[in-house]
Amino acid sequence: MVKFFKAEKLFFNTPSSFIATKEWVEINKSKWPSQLILLENSDVIKEEPPVVVGHSISGRFTRYYQRASKETFVAIIPGAKLLGEFSNIIITPDNLVLSDVSREFGAEGGRKPKSFSVFNNRARMPEMIKLQGKIAVVSTHGANNFHHWNYDVLPRLDLLKRAGVIPVIDKFIICHKAQKFQLEGLSKLGIPSEKIINPSGDERFFVEADYLYIPSLPEDLGTISPWVVDFLRNVFLTGKNRSVTNKMLFLSRKKAPSRKIINQDEVSDEVLGRGFVEFIPEDFSMEEVAEYFSEAKSIVSVHGSGLSNLAFIEHGACVLDIMAPYHQDPYYWMICNQRGAKYVALFAEGKHPADELDLVTEKVDDDLLIDMGKLKKALDLIS
User: Fold this and answer.
1) Residue 22: what are its φ and ψ, rounded to 5°?
2) Is residue 222 scored above 80 in pLDDT?
3) Which of 37, 164, 236, 278 is the most buried (most CB within 10 A)?
4) Cβ-proximal residues to 183 (8 Å cutoff; 6+ apart), any chain
């Protein structure tokens, strides 16, 4: 027996296209009582070129020598919906994806809106739950990663605070796994657990809010905005005037699952022999790590989330970022520039990718072989 389904049920709540938040609010403010609170206009950011040892400066740096920062805002939209474990797809009442506040990993810089997975599945959307009250969406893709938590998630709470709406929020949607750094950040920002809706593990999480409060994403993937660095310093560095000391840190990856140094003993002997001290960030609280970084004269590390703590360094510090050719991005160079620090990059041995190659879809997470001659030259620049 053939069964028939009504078309409106099959495609119920399925987004049809995408639009920027500001544009949607402007078009629809008479139909839906929505609001956009603009906090910062776009600005021009200029970067100082990095120092690269043993290789030319690639387009992955030069393309950002001058760029425009994103506007920051909080949008308030009645009947808006959000989809996904990380609440990373935001949908308007008339079923358009808000392209600039939605984010999906899977490509360098994030997937383009037209490639969002929600547009590839034309079957029935997940069952939608309606939430009463004023709901703020905070988390986005990468929320369980140390770097993305601190640079993409927590700053959205700051935007809500600056917009003056924190006191009226009934619930905050924040995906997290109760990792130490996550709980510390939420505690420092005064977000009580009873006000958090945590969709962790629920890939089909799909809700509609009476009023959805939507802070902008702090910046495009692959870049860092100065205000985010200032925000992190204000949260985790407190109490006293700070200045660079003679402390020199060699960040350890003993507890990291990948990107180990193949000739670790040889590298450690050279680095530690120059007065650096091995430091394992995972063994300390965020506030303690911030203290260590703020006092450091020089820092050496394999490229990884531990360098997210560079927000806490002081002017005049020096940083050596050791990168695998197929695992590189400009985050930590940008932070060093914003903090008035010297940034030196050293590439491990191996073939270098073309500038246009997408290093997310073509990701290689191999261990690193360090040329000792190049390492010594790089260390001379920061010691």
Assistant:
1) -60, -40
2) yes
3) 236
4) 176
| Residue 383, number of CB atoms within 10 A of its CB | 16
Amino acid at 123: A
Relative to beta strand 296-302, strand 247-251 is: parallel
Q: Beta-carbon neighbour count of residue 114 at 10 Å?
A: 10
24/79 Cα distance (integer angstroms): 14
Low-confidence winner among 150-154, 202-206, 283-287, 362-366 (lowest mean pLDDT): 362-366
Nearest to 229 by CA among 142, 159, 309, 137: 309
DSSP 8-state secondary structure symbol assigned to residue 144? T
**Placement of tokens 């005037």 in the chain:** 241
Give the Cα separation of 248 and 90 in Å (integer). 44
| Cβ atoms 61, 353 nearer than 8 A | no
Closest of 149, 152, 378, 115 to residue 270, by C-alpha:
378
Nearest to 360 by CA among 112, 135, 161: 112
* Burial letters 236-254, b for 16+ CB under 10 A, else e: bbeeeeeebeebbbbbbbe
Q: How far apart are CA 8 and CA 76, in angstroms?
A: 28
Nearest in space to 307 (alpha carbons), one of 325, 324, 330 = 330
Residues 87 and 239: their CA atoms lie apart, in Å, by 35
Nearest by Cα to 374 from 342, 341, 349:
349
Q: What is 41-95 written as a DSSP string?
A: ---EEE-PPPEEESSPPPHHHHTTSEEEPPPEEEEEEET-EEESTT--EEE-TTS
Reading the block at residue 346, the tokens are 């050293």
Identity of the amino acid at 8: E
Query: Tens of pLDDT along 135-146?
Result: 999 999 999 999
For 240, left (φ over 0), alpha (ψ -120 to 50), or beta? Answer: beta
Q: In what order do the strands lie in the sheet with 51-53?
A: 51-53, 342-347, 318-323, 296-302, 247-251, 277-279
- Alpha-carbon distance of 100 to 79, in angstroms, equals 18
- Residue 15 in tokens: 């987004």
What digits encode the pLDDT tens for the residues 328-380?
A: 889 999 999 999 999 999 999 999 999 999 988 887 778 999 999 999 999 99
